[in-house]
Design a protein that fits this description.
- The chain has 153 residues and is an alpha/beta fold.
- 37% of the residues lie in helices and 15% in strands.
- The chain is built from 5 helices and 4 strands.
- The chain has a 4-stranded parallel sheet, with helices on both faces.
- Helix 1 links the parallel strand 1 and strand 2.
- Helix 4 runs parallel beside helix 5.
Length: 153
């Protein structure tokens, strides 16, 4: 039996209305309103977390929306489409496959890293949460943790 004194179940102090809530910085390449298993997972988990957390999101999804309380930032990838087209035209698509690792969303990492760092400096979140698939989103979370020291989930 776990009691409130147990280290496995921490006790929570009730928050007063004027006390700021903790802030959760969520990184997910896909966000609602897209119809996708990852978007559904993001929607359900973050909606549940909003009872105790202020939600800030970073995504590639155009018109991303969770609800009125969440702040969602949209960052588009920098895709070197001319280079990709040139490699394909020269029948060097295997080189393209080797360079685009771990997935096609790798071109979102650098703009998301830059914008994520700016958001962290402005909003000062307490924790970073990354939803995987595509795996390249994990690079953003790991590098932001390394740059800022904020815990990563």
């Amino acid at each position: 039996m776990i009691t409130n004194d147990s280290p496995l179940e921490p006790t929570r102090e009730p928050r007063s209305p004027d006390q700021p809530t903790a802030t959760l910085f969520c990184i997910s390449h896909i966000f609602p309103p897209k119809i996708n298993p990852l978007a559904n997972r993001v929607s359900k988990l973050l909606s549940g977390f909003q009872q105790d957390w202020q939600i800030i999101g970073l995504t590639d999804t155009e018109n991303a929306y969770l609800n009125d309380q969440a702040k969602i930032y949209v960052v588009k990838p920098w895709v070197p489409q001319l280079l990709i087209d040139l490699l394909n035209k020269l029948k060097l698509s295997k080189i393209n496959d080797l360079l685009v690792w771990p997935d096609r969303s790798i071109f979102w990492v650098l703009p998301a890293l830059i914008k994520g760092y700016q958001i962290i400096k402005k909003e000062k979140p307490d924790v970073i949460l990354v939803f995987l698939m595509p795996y390249s989103a994990s690079f953003v979370g790991v590098w932001l943790k390394w740059l800022t020291g904020i815990p990563l989930i």
